[in-house]
Amino acid sequence: MKKIISVCVSAAVALTSLVSLSSCSKEKRGPVGVSNGGKVLNIYAWNNEFKERFVTYAEKKLPADVKVNWVINPNKDNVYQKKLDDALLRQGKAEKDKRVDLFLVEADYALKYVNQFATVDVRSAVGLTDAQLANQYKYTQDVMTDNNGVLKGVSWQATPAGLIYRRSIAKAVLGTDDPEKVGPMLSSWEKFDAVAAKAKAKGYYMLSGYDDSFRAFSDNMKSSWVTKDRKINIDPQIKAWIDQTKRYTDLGYNNRASLWSPESNKGMSADGKVFCYFGPAWFIDFTMAGNSLADADGAKKLGNGSYGDWAFCKGPQSFSWGGTWLCAADGTDNIDEIRMIMDTLCCDADTMKDLAMKYGDFTNNVPAMEAVAKSDYKNEFLGGQNHIKFFVEAAKSIDRSNISMYDQTMSEKIQTFMADYFNGNVTLDKAWKNFYKGVIEVHSELSE
To answer: Does residue 207 contact residue 339 with C-beta atoms inside 8 Å?
Structure first.
């Protein structure tokens, strides 16, 4: 995969987004190497999503004398990355059982760790073979392949996404909740707008707020956020998202909520008035399912809040969102355990099938997902629908060739500063000026 943006950035970036890990930082470190024999497996993550899967499928395969130490820090305000980066920088000086062994990264900042010593070769250092990796979706490997063609991480997920809509609201607005009928009614942005007007007339919001459709647009960008001469680039898809969101805000088609906010989460509850959310399989399991429950400790079944009152369709345009990759840290002394974890959770077809059926994950194994798509699998949150079949073809076409090291900053800043415009607090021109200023404060090597 062509890496558009050089890893070498200014000192200002090293202090903010790379936290002294890049080869250009003032404090440098070389490779430490990997080994075996460690009695403590230190795993860095930002929530319990991976931990739950690890405990279910991999923990029982660990040697009896190896203890797992979870170091979990929140993503908010980049706390996770800062803590991880500090630990990686000290890796060569730390006692072996206190070193980072395995850590997780997300799509928006994966490149930060690919072209540097912090991550090691999944093949030569970890020991995974081409045969073990053969059935993964290509883009999941492209994202974690460095400039020399070396694979630096693997994922249990593939993340094609679509539209998750409320069945009862669909019946009220469209007269049906059948995905085969609702899907065509929402298959273009023009049709989506028309349904939004109908939903408003019935007392519903089409979307929860400003950010709901952002990924559906941003993932369809044809160009990178930053050009080769380091100028900030605004793709037409971003402008389309801004135009749509402003219209929806002014017309009352959304509830003026921000993604992940209590207001957005409430829209998923039994009393929620939100017609639909955009998201991949992990968003259904990790975000929507829990927020839908009236009784958080009760059974996940139809009748507990809005659980089971949802369905899935493709929506106006295909897109993907997110993904989590496992990286073996340079300096680990648990390389055998890491190889087992990566093989079990990211390569083993039986595990991948079970992950899909147990958690609703769309997993990173082509034949496994094709098998589930053709099976009698039913997702109870989606009213018994087999949503995996909608994802199979979409996953094959995901392209991350325009990914850059700046994606996280750009995505966060554009949503933050445009919210002022959507709310009518600033003009569009002022919002753009604030956006450029905000980005350049973080990445001083960039320009308009």
So the answer is: no
pLDDT of amino acid 328 = 98
Buried b (16+ CB within 10 A) or exposed e, 6-16: ebebeeebbeb
- Predicted confidence (pLDDT) per residue in 139-188, tens digit: 999 999 999 999 999 999 999 999 999 999 999 999 999 999 999 999 99
- Whole-model pTM: value is 0.89
d(CA 203, CA 192) in angstroms, rounded, equals 16
Q: Which amino acid, one-letter code, is at 158?
A: A
Q: Read off the pLDDT of residues 236-256 as tens digits, 9 standing for 90 and up.
A: 999 999 999 999 999 999 999
pLDDT at 399: 87
Decide the pairing of beta strands 276-280 and 160-166: antiparallel
DSSP 80-146: HHHHHHHHHHTTTTS-GGGS--EEEEEGGGTHHHHTSTTB--IIIII---HHHHTTS-HHHHHHTB-
Q: What is the 3-state secondary structure (H, E, C) of 236-261?
A: HHHHHHHHHHHHHHHHCCEEEECCCC
Antiparallel, parallel or unpaired: β 319-320 and 160-166: antiparallel
